[in-house]
Design brief:
This protein is 51% helix and 5% strand. The chain has 77 residues and is mainly α. A two-stranded antiparallel ribbon has the order 1-2. The radius of gyration is 20 Å and the shape is elongated. This is Helix-turn-helix domain-containing protein. InterPro entries: HTH_17, SinI_DNA-bd.
């Protein structure tokens, strides 16, 4: 069974971020976290995944990129 609740060390390992970056995200409340006793910090794995997947950028085909470039060039002449 895979863990669903992670410590700071485990969250850093899971995300690939340093522990100091995890603490910074917690400090600025950029990432959901839990402090049940006011000291230890815990994370739900699904919250970390949601954070990592935010700001999705859709891939564009070569034709779409060329069309956007042509339109931009035409508008800025």
């Amino acid at each position: 069974m895979e863990k669903e609740i992670l410590t700071v060390d485990e969250a850093a390992s899971f995300t690939g971020f340093s522990k100091s970056h995890i603490y910074k995200l917690v400090h600025y409340r950029r990432i959901d976290h839990y402090k049940p006793n006011g000291k230890n910090i815990f994370f739900r794995k699904e919250d970390l995944e949601a954070y990592l997947l935010q700001g999705k950028r859709e891939a564009k085909s070569k034709e779409e990129i060329q069309s956007i470039a042509a339109n931009w060039s035409f508008e800025n002449e």
